Amino acid sequence: MSDADALPMVVPDPSLPTRVRIHEVGARDGLQNEKATLPTEMKARFIHRLADAGLTTIEATSFVHPKWVPQLADAEALFPLVDDLPVALPVLVPNERGLDRALALGARRVAVFASATESFAKANLNRTVDEALAMFDPVVTRARTEGGHVRGYLSMCFGDPWEGPVPIPQVVRVCRALLAMGCDELSLGDTIGVATPGHVQALLTALNEAGVPTSALGVHFHDTYGQALANTLTALRHGVTTVDASAGGLGGCPYAKSATGNLATEDLVWMLRGLGIDTGVDLGRLVATSEWMAAHLGRPSPSRTVRALGRTTQPHKEQ
Amino acid sequence: MSDADALPMVVPDPSLPTRVRIHEVGARDGLQNEKATLPTEMKARFIHRLADAGLTTIEATSFVHPKWVPQLADAEALFPLVDDLPVALPVLVPNERGLDRALALGARRVAVFASATESFAKANLNRTVDEALAMFDPVVTRARTEGGHVRGYLSMCFGDPWEGPVPIPQVVRVCRALLAMGCDELSLGDTIGVATPGHVQALLTALNEAGVPTSALGVHFHDTYGQALANTLTALRHGVTTVDASAGGLGGCPYAKSATGNLATEDLVWMLRGLGIDTGVDLGRLVATSEWMAAHLGRPSPSRTVRALGRTTQPHKEQ
């Protein structure tokens, strides 16, 4: 058996969903957190390769002001290079100005980015939580009037770097507000990676008890403390079927202190494949794509599966 | 909140055990798979620091022939430097000669190392599976006659690099044979890291159905594909309370192709702490110990938690 043939034995767990939709965030959340800014053509090629690997929801870029996220300043140039792909291509819009830009290009799937904590709302949006919600309200309304689909990201759902553990009722309140203004789905973010399985289960249960159906919820875990896949498994066991992941674990330098890397799509696909859960992803093609990207970024992918299955030696100098 | 204070919010899951015993393998399984051979005094210091961090079962060394594992050739010199610690200090013994050496030093907790597959038995022990079991039989009997406690490692319980997926009945047969000869506990090893949660659950269920109680089972997962913690969580949910882990993830170079790193003790402790499961481990002390070891080995720890909580910059040159 060669490495290329290595695949897990398929043993389903009847208590888990039979299908999972991966919301691929590498091209947006991943690249916006990398130091390097890539050429537009390479980003387009990345998105094409992700689609070719079988991913069906690929967050493409962000229409935030270039001053804040210079890595994605080329959204207007990039979107037309990928919008003919037969996949969903949501884009992040921070406000009405961003929505105008996205709509002008024909984008109809958009995402807003809210915070469960005051500290992060202040740091990231320079607003209170409620002021940020008020800013999103017309964005969500207009996007839906245009026939669009709106995802609401909610960051700091478990812990916050300034405030510590985040009370569950506080998260529930913001989730309900985002749904009330018209968001079609939410993505519950563990932005600093501190969540553990009991906490995940408790938040999902509290949301259900507050009237939020599991079908409206996606999960977005970070691997800062190595917990992302165990937390994802816990969410699947609760019935969640939308999981955010980033090809090759893009988005957090694996050597930085407090690396905030996203769950690697390949590590997720390995688990789902072993569980017999269909995702449509060709793992070999996805690994090859992440290796290609890692080579351009000049550092090894933090994804364990990419390292194990990769055909090339990862760029790294032993010391 | 500083990094040093970062701890997960404690949210227990009533379906999980309330206590877990960590079987720390860094000093044996970890160091025997590192390229560098450390001085005896440093190994002794490592074991002392692990005990000081609250670990209660620390596999100390191996009495395999130095020709096969030169990294642990100093077992006779090392054991007397640590045997006054108030913790369990099991040692690996490959055969009767190894047992003689261990008993002569006063060791009473020993472990044998069996294979679930013929290919690995041949490669690692130059015997068939049954020939290896026959070799262990007098070792187990004598160790128990001397009042000892015997752990039976079983490698390749899920997949084998030559044979691919390993049939569950084959694993069950060898487990039963090891228990029948007198092993007190088994450690089910996913030596190449391919297992996924449904497979873990299926093996544990099959073992129970064959009369093996969960209380006799420990699990030993590798993070080759990033699955170790999700698999461990699955085993805990099944009632397993003995989990093998390696401080700092020692034992697999994180940059090698097909890195076969052990589950990092720190990543496990983070999850267990969040779940309110008592282990007695001081995470800060353990992280400091793994950072000290990583500095000596000249490369960053593959443990995500060590990287996130570490006080020093990990040894790595950006490219």
TrEMBL record, chains A, B:
The keyword Transport is assigned to this record: no
Xref: Pfam families: HMGL-like
Entry keyword set: Lyase, Metal-binding
Domain of life: Bacteria
Disordered: annotated span: 299-319
GO molecular function: hydroxymethylglutaryl-CoA lyase activity; metal ion binding
Keyword Lyase tagged: yes
InterPro entries: Aldolase_TIM, HMGL, PYR_CT
Residue ranges annotated for the Pyruvate carboxyltransferase domain, each copy included: 20-287
GO biological process: ketone body biosynthetic process; L-leucine catabolic process
Coiled coil: none
PROSITE patterns for the chain: PYR_CT
Family as reported in the entry's similarity comment: Belongs to the HMG-CoA lyase family.
The protein, known as: Hydroxymethylglutaryl-CoA lyase
Provenance organism: Streptomyces capitiformicae
